[in-house]
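# nightly structure sweep
# worker-07 picked up a monomer target from the shared queue
# config: single-sequence mode, recycle default, output format = structure tokens
# input follows
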Amino acid sequence: MASKSKNKGSYHERWFLKLFQSLGLRIKKQPLSGSLGGEYKGDLLWNVDLYKDKNLFVEVKYRDKANFPNVFNLLEDRDVALCKRKIGDPRYCVIISDKVFEQTIIPLINKAQDYDVLINTSILKGESND
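# output follows
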């Protein structure tokens, strides 16, 4: 039988899993909440780029109050930390390391902006996207 703490951790991992999946993100739960290490480190595995098969290791933390671990410690050997609290606004925070932000998130934003410009330019020129 799992401990109360492990059950609580698994509940909040599933909460983020369902939330991110409902937002259209490709994310899955890691076996044994990442305790196996290696390719199974982190609580969740988030595939952010379908074409490059880029996966981010995600750590989930929940607290009743605002007593969270140091965010830099949360990101040790992880790419993203998700911190959720019982009450208050914001309800949760997404913390991304500088390396992940610069090397993964920014290129994806630029790709989306380039695509938007291409689509809008085509529409203005009367071109079809079929």
